[in-house]
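DsbA family oxidoreductase: structure, please.
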Amino acid sequence: MTPSVTVDFVSDVVCPWCALGATALEQAIDNVAGEVSVELTYKPFELNPGMPAEGEKAVEHLMRKYGRTAQDVANGKAMQIERGNAIGFKFDLEKRTHFYNTFDAHRLLYWAQVEGRQVALKKILLRAYFSEGQNPSDQPTLVRLADEAGLDEARAREVLASGAFAEEVRELEAFYQQHGINSVPAMVLNGRHLVSGSQSVEYYEQMLRQMAQAPAEA
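Here you go.
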């Protein structure tokens, strides 16, 4: 019988390190296929829960929030692009002009999990924002991306318009914050083992194999 591992990947769709971590993790999952059965679920985290609908210019936001210089921001972009290229994720950070509110995106991802299309939607959302500069707070954009992920377009529109799954998303955000996750990405394996930060494909493979062989807690 193939051993199984559950992975809760806590992240935001406007977090570049989350994009890198998610891409590396999904490659690691592919690499252990046949050895380890992995159940991957993306969990919500908002980097900027108070961000207004119109967003904030990306460079100014990073300088203000983290106390960085313009050169620091440029260096960070270069590092992210290099790491992305190494694992096949394309950053076009000239197109990513703003940071946006992501609460609606998380509501849509919650619904997508129910529909069995969450991993597909997450990948599309990350590409849309980081590679194409699309706005993940814009509801018509989210509806179109949901359709691209194989979800029902009319139902996606209904979910977003109704405020559905808002309480569930807030409860999950509070749960992970109460358990000490204050930065992302963060990965929880089998509900108990925490891996913080964006790691390599090889490291994620190692952790998946290790947790697959670990004895279950009593």
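Notes: The longest helix spans residues 70-87.
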